[in-house]
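Figure 2 data, in text form.
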Amino acid sequence: MANPKAFLTVNRKEAGYRPVMERITDFGEVEQTLNMEDRREQASRCMDCGVPFCHWACPLGNLIPEWQDLLYRGKWQEAYRLLTQTNNFPEFTGRVCPALCEKSCVLNMERQPLTIRENEAAIAEHAFLEDYVKASPPANRTGKRVAVVGSGPAGLAVADMLNRQGHEVTVYEKDEYTGGLLRLGIPDFKLNKGIIDRRLNLMMEEGVEFVTSTEVGVDIPAERLIEEFDAVCLATGAGVPRDLAVENRELRGIYFALDFLKQQNRVIAGQTFEAAERILAKGKRVLVIGGGDTGSDCVGTAVRQRALSVTQIEILPKPPEEVNPDTPWPLYPNILKTSSSHKEGCTRRWALASERFIGSGGEVTGVEVMEVEWRKDAAGRFAMQGTDRREVIEADLVLLSMGFVSPVHEGLLDGLGVKYDSRGNVLAVGPGESSVAKVFVAGDVTTGASLVVRAIESGRRAAEAIGKFLAESPSSPQGR
């Protein structure tokens, strides 16, 4: 245990964010950092509980109390080594994870949880700063070859784990950059892309091969991968966004959230777009439909693009602000979440259903919304009921951020003949196994849209299944 009295004498201290009027002028990371002594003091607050609910809540099973103790004692390198035993990319999760662990921390009963996520990021950054994160290629190669389709967090985790085992891994990415939604879906103000490049460079030094701008199933026949590799892992994500099929959906100025976010990330990376194809919020009344994290990212991006105003609406009711009896500790609480983007200037509204789009000259000018009420039925489940209360929210740019339906079936998945579950995700018939021989699955393609931390965990589990399969398989196919 770090300091047996610290949880009583030391309050939670967050690093906080850069000042609003400064950060909205650029796309630099908004979160600040604490100095090393403050960070060690925060680590000292860990109670080393008899039942570590933080460990229970973490999808990766991170050994949180143990590396908090090492951090408190100034053993940064040992803390990093322990952290990376369960998490391939703590520099990612330390920035973008919603910290399920903190919500289950015993100290959260007093709303003073340990700063686990920030501590994790600090350990990772200290490791890179002190240059003890080194490329470590496997000493021996097995001769087995694995193709990973998709370079998001799940695909990267699969590739990293299998490469460590000595297998030859090739990662295929349909976009021009490696990283999946880490690269193109998350704004730079939350995750600077240099952080991704730093890790990718290490993986390449260790022997992982990355092939970009190549869509398997289109540019390369899926059958070719089956023939040339000993195993194939699908980690393509859940790429079909949920649409809003209402009147006048065809109006110009209505876009899916990821189209907006991806284009801005490409602009920051140096790409240029013609005025006709540029999705720009400058001087416009922006309406974000959907209240999740992606919607919040749209808010922050629109603010930085100098939107005239930004409104975010959600069909669900407004959650409680601090305590929700329906999700008691140690469960993840369904309470109001206010992001750094929301604090930069945004009107937020709840219990509104979008009825139809309104336009002029082919351009969207607003959305007619209806207030809805949520009531529990006899079984205790919430059911939505419409009302007669309607209004029009004026908007020149509408961003649809309502989640994802399923992975894209056409092309690769249908071509392979994989089975789907009731939600349209690729069915896992065993841990990480699809219904097709030699084909494995990891991440959102099989779980549905989820968190980066869950994608990494799914990738590690798939890599374990692939490793076992390869160990039991005969030598690699001949004639290569």
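Caption note: Residues 145-239+405-472 form a domain with the FAD/NAD(P)-binding domain fold (CATH 3.50.50.60).
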